[in-house]
UniProtKB/TrEMBL annotation:
Gene source species: Microthyrium microscopicum
Name of this protein: Putative monooxygenase
Keyword Oxidoreductase: yes
Domain FAD-binding per the UniProt entry, residue ranges: 6-224, 301-337
A Pfam family of this chain: FAD_binding_3
UniProt keyword terms in alphabetical order: FAD, Flavoprotein, Monooxygenase, Oxidoreductase
Keyword Oxidoreductase included in the entry's annotation: yes
Length: 399
């Protein structure tokens, strides 16, 4: 193992992927994670890993076969519905067999992805229950940094990697830029044991995702593993909407009804779409969605960098956040390995890594912003249906 002392803050997809890739190259590192254990909290719903995104990192990490065991290729099928319930596209009906090509993007539950990455790490890689408060230079002239946690201080790291997500504490050392409200709030609801408890919903959503996009609102119902579905009812509204809209979110049953009745945002939707909201009744979580400005960058600082959401937080409306995070991890691992193998200083290599990441982040954040505009426009559903149809045609032409 290398003598470099590397700290990774955060055991999300970015931090775990980086740790695995470094360990594959015999470079040691420690992850510091604020959650008390791997079972600490719900990790979120399903994510799709793209061939040139998350899958490329897993391939280099030697985990692609493991990924295939847990992923759900059938989860890629989209169904697009207009606000009144009219079917715009049923991808599975138009192309029942998806070819395993460049557009391949199987779904995997975040919990499964995390467990697979955790299982791949050497024992004691992760220090759980370590909430980072601040990072500071070890001494005014040293390139090393100390980490201040809620309960301890760890000294003299050669490299600190902030993989600590939206509200990154490591980011504060590099830039004053903070995430801002994206203009979209999501009401996330779960339907558990869905085949047994909500057979209609199970059938309607199918193996993949059902999307409704409309002016200022969207509904997304996604099949997750473990016989469950998550429905996201989203509105494009000011940040205080959750508090001011007259819905008491602590009463999920009545909250759901108010979303689809009276002057609720989904009151004039088709009955099927209303059922998606009403039948996803096992949990309700409100999420105001935040983002960093598109094209965020900072001046390189020796011994500290960021990857994933901490570097370029974006909304989920292009479905790329995890993928970009894992590609960041892949590129950073390659940079660190190069410095080690060639016995050269990490500084210029890290600066070059960051320049490339800024470009990648800007490109995908721009795509995501365009996706948000499309998802919340009156013609968003039709446009997406046309795009998917073009992809199907191209895919059929290739095969
Ligand atoms: C509703 C929703 C749906 C999404 N769907 C998709 C999708 O379909 N496809 C896709 O590609 N992306 C999707 N995303 C985006 C994706 O979830 C993120 O881009 C991805 O999780 C980023 O990974 P990360 O490791 O950078 O950050 P995170 O997953 O946020 O992980 C950060 C880790 O750091 C830890 N941490 C935070 N602060 C500290 C601290 N102070 N000290 C120590 N540890 C700390 C956290 O506990 C966490 O474990 C979605 C996001 C949302 C909100």
């Amino acid at each position: 193992m290398s003598p470099l002392r590397i700290a990774i803050i955060g055991a999300g997809p970015a931090g775990l992927t980086l740790a695995r890739l470094l360990q594959v190259s015999k470079i040691s590192c420690t992850i510091f994670e604020l959650e008390p254990s791997a079972q600490g909290r719900d990790q979120g719903g399903t994510v799709d890993l793209h061939k040139r995104g998350g899958q490329s990192a897993l391939l280099e990490a030697g985990l692609i076969e493991e990924f295939k065991k847990f992923s759900r290729p059938e989860g890629q099928f989209d169904k697009l519905v207009k606000f009144d319930g009219t079917l715009l596209l049923d991808e599975k009906a138009e192309m029942p067999e998806r070819p395993d090509d460049e557009d391949d993007r199987p779904e995997i539950d975040r919990q499964k992805l995390r467990q697979m990455l955790l299982d791949s790490l050497l024992p004691d890689t992760i220090r759980w229950g370590k909430k980072l408060i601040a990072v500071e230079q070890s001494t005014p002239t040293s390139p090393k940094h100390n980490l201040h946690f809620a309960d301890s201080v760890e000294n003299d790291f050669d490299l600190v990697v902030g993989a600590d997500g939206a509200w990154s504490k490591v980011r504060s050392l590099l830039t004053n830029i903070k995430p801002h409200y994206s203009g979209v709030t999501a009401i996330e609801q779960w339907a558990l044991d869905v085949d047994q408890k909500q057979p209609w919903l199970s059938e309607y959503v199918g193996d993949g995702s059902m999307f409704m996009f409309d002016q200022g609102r969207a509904i997304m119902s996604q099949r997750n593993g473990n016989n469950s579905i998550r429905t996201y009812a989203c509105v494009r509204q000011p940040q205080n909407w959750l508090q001011e809209c007259g819905i008491d979110w602590s009463q999920p049953e009545t909250a759901r009804e108010k979303l689809v009745a009276g002057d609720g945002p989904f009151a004039n939707c088709g009955d099927d779409l209303k059922r998606c909201i009403l039948e996803s009744k096992d949990n309700l979580v409100t999420r105001a969605l935040y983002m960093l400005p598109v094209g965020v960058k900072w001046e390189h600082r020796e011994g500290v960098t960021l990857i994933g959401d901490s570097a370029h937080l974006m909304t989920p409306f292009a479905g790329v956040g995890v993928n970009v995070a894992m590609v960041d991890a892949l590129e950073l691992s390659r940079a660190i390995v190069k410095a080690e193998v060639d016995h050269i200083s990490l500084g210029p290599i890290l600066a070059a890594f960051e320049e490339a990441m800024f470009k990648r982040g800007e490109m995908f954040a721009g795509k995501t912003w365009k996706g948000l505009e499309g998802h919340f426009s009156a013609t968003g559903g039709e446009e997406r249906a046309a795009k998917v149809r073009a992809q199907i045609a191209a895919s059929k032409a290739r095969s």
